[in-house]
Specification:
By secondary structure, this protein is of the alpha+beta class. It is 35% helix and 17% strand. α3 crosses α4.
């Protein structure tokens, strides 16, 4: 059974979706069920702290559905520190995979923000973003983290 809860942030309403004992999705919407359990409370608390700039790394149980490659790309994205960025090519080199495949896996990230796909850039700079608001939201997240200097 999936429970969901939303929090209003400067990046829009973020909705955390939990199945059993792990977060399985994060979307830009208002939750329909507004469920309540300790994991949802902790996730909302951490998202609020991130939005305030007091949390730099999330510590939440996640369950990413997908291939071993999707898991590997999500692990690489999760390892990018707050305020830093990597390119698709850098992640591709680390995994021994094509950059295009990394880009597709980034776009398929089910838990954006918590798994920071916004920190992944193209070889020539800013690229798309699958979250609501697209590139504008990516820019807002990068600026929030102090990683937006390249945009000026």
């Amino acid at each position: 059974m999936t429970n969901s809860r939303s929090v209003q942030t400067s990046f829009g309403p973020l909705c955390v979706h939990v199945e059993d004992d792990a977060i399985v999705r994060l979307t830009w919407e208002i939750a329909q069920d507004q469920g309540e359990n300790s994991l949802l409370k902790e996730a909302i608390s951490q998202l609020k702290a991130y939005d305030l700039g007091t949390l730099k790394a999330f510590d939440l149980p996640l369950r990413v559905k997908g291939s071993a490659f999707q898991h590997a790309v999500c692990a690489e994205m999760s390892a990018i520190p707050f305020g830093d960025t990597k390119t698709y090519g850098e992640i591709a080199k680390a995994l021994g995979a094509p950059a295009r495949a990394v880009g597709q896996a980034c776009g398929g990230n089910p838990v954006p923000v918590i798994i920071p796909c916004h920190r992944v850039m193209g070889a020539k700079g800013l690229t798309g973003f699958s979250g609501a608001g697209g590139v504008e939201t990516k820019v807002a997240l990068l600026r929030h983290e102090g990683a937006g200097g390249f945009l000026i």
